[in-house]
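Appendix B, Record 12. Input sequence as logged:
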Amino acid sequence: MSEYKENLIKRLRDKYKAYDITGNHNSGLIFKEAADVIEASERINQGYQIVGSIPVGETEYVLGYNEHNKCATWVTWACVKRNNEYSYYAGNYHSDMKVATLDMIDRAKNSLKGM
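Logged structural output:
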């Protein structure tokens, strides 16, 4: 992993480790701290590196980063994997890392409430 990516992941973990996104479903722990779900990925969608994800059932809520897009550096998508292929949909684009990360967390929480 490049030093740039490592530093980005470290910043995300350090900044958001205080956000508790725990929830219970079927007597099991679904979420951990945000720091535990933010990790580097080799996945890229529309030029965005996937840097975080929260799985909820069959859907995964992902956080993407694209340093070249100055207007919308961050994005969150809902994502499903079928036949070893990822399908991203319902993108929310952001210029602020905190807003994007909280959006990913909120989308996952809202999805959990519907289960």
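Residues 17-38 have pLDDT under 50 and may be disordered.
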